[in-house]
Amino acid sequence: MSEVQDYASRLSDPKSRKMGTFSYLPAMDGDQIRKQIQYIVDQGWNPAIEHTEPQYSASHYWYMWKLPMFGETDVDRILEEVELCKKSNPGNHVRLVGYDNYKQSQGANMVIYKAPLEGDVLKEMEAAAAVHAYELVHK
Prior knowledge:
The chain has three helices and four strands. It has 139 residues and is an alpha+beta fold.
């Protein structure tokens, strides 16, 4: 059996945090995102788009972009909504969710756009992580 490699993800290092399916892989290109959307559609799942500010991505609910796209099977239409969400919320992460009606759960959940972590956002995330780490040690 091969040795499992450790991934140095730390609360104190916002750039090391991972979220959602495929987060340990390189970013998907447009064709790969299209294939994932097609998979969601092929499963009969309802696509939905969510977004949030990077500093709240791990500790808060994500905002829903409009309502889930119930019954939508047009991949181009779903991609248009992703782009509209991204354009309307340029500093936010954007993720795609595939809701499975029958199992009443998410069948897919992937971040398809990560906003850059820099400047004040990164400082705010690092400060929040330091406070959280302090609280864990001193309780």
